[in-house]
Amino acid sequence: MPLGVDTMIDQMKIVRYPHPALRRVAKPLTAIDKTVHLVAGKMIELMNEAKGLGLAGNQVAWPFQMIVLNLNTDPQQEKPEPTVFINPVILEKKGAIEEEEGCLSLPDLYQRVRRAKQVRVQAYNLKGEAVEISAADLPARAWQHEIDHLQGILFIDKLGPIAKLSSRNKLREFEAQFTKAQERGEIPPTAEIEKELDALMAEGGG
């Protein structure tokens, strides 16, 4: 790994569109070691700070198939525990519903997106145990959104023509901010980012 594990995790942050990591197809994890546990903890921390419902590995420039979700809406539980899922796969989709959606990597951009109303998902937890979960409505939407991230797909890719048109200025603003941050040296050049992502994927996530 190009950076030490502790340094890499300490520097992790939620990347914004059009960061190249967001278009990477994430690599399945083949082992669950200390690095995976540390990255999971950092992702939960970042998701909670941003008050998000979910976060995918791609969104912290860690191109592996892991997501964290915070979907416990039980009012009796004061502090819902975020959950970590590895190599998630949607087994079944049912129904369809269009609702407003946003993304921590595209802050303050919201559009209506059509997705399945219900899903059945299989994944692994941090103990390496296979789990199968059925979800509907908002939790189902969050599952689909985060699993899309692992395939390099963003919610803006699913917009209709009118929504795409109305999002155009905001996307251009993100692109301009990203370019200026690179010019200031706050974000590495795109070629350097790609090289780092390649090195991470070659090293393996576990």
Walk me through what this model shows.
The protein is of the alpha+beta class and 206 residues long. The protein has a single domain, classed as Peptide deformylase (Peptide Deformylase), CATH 3.90.45.10. Helix content is 36%, strand content 24%. It contains five helices and seven strands; from the N terminus they run ααβββββββααα. It has a five-stranded antiparallel beta sheet. Strand 6 and strand 7 form a beta hairpin.
**DSSP summary: helix tally:** 5
**Shape designation:** globular
Low-confidence stretches: none
Helicity level: 25-40%
Report mean pLDDT, rounded to a whole number.
Answer: 93
**How many extended strands?**
7
How does CATH name the architecture? Alpha-Beta Complex
Q: State the CATH class.
A: Alpha Beta
Order of strands, widest sheet: 1-2-3-6-7
What structural class should be given to the helix and strand makeup? alpha+beta
What is the total domain count? 1
What is the succession of H and E elements?
HHEEEEEEEHHH
| Cα Rg | 17 Å
Query: How large a portion of the residues is in β-strands, by DSSP E?
Result: 15-25%
Largest sheet, strands/sense/barrel: 5 strands, antiparallel
**What name goes with the CATH superfamily?**
Peptide deformylase
Whole-Å distance between the termini? 11 Å
* CATH topology grouping: Peptide Deformylase
List the helices and strands and how they pair.
Layout: H1 5-11, H2 34-49, E1 54-56, E2 66-69, E3 83-94, E4 97-103, E5 106-115, E6 118-124, E7 130-136, H3 137-150, H4 161-183, H5 190-203
Antiparallel strand pairs: 1-2, 2-3, 3-6, 4-5, 6-7
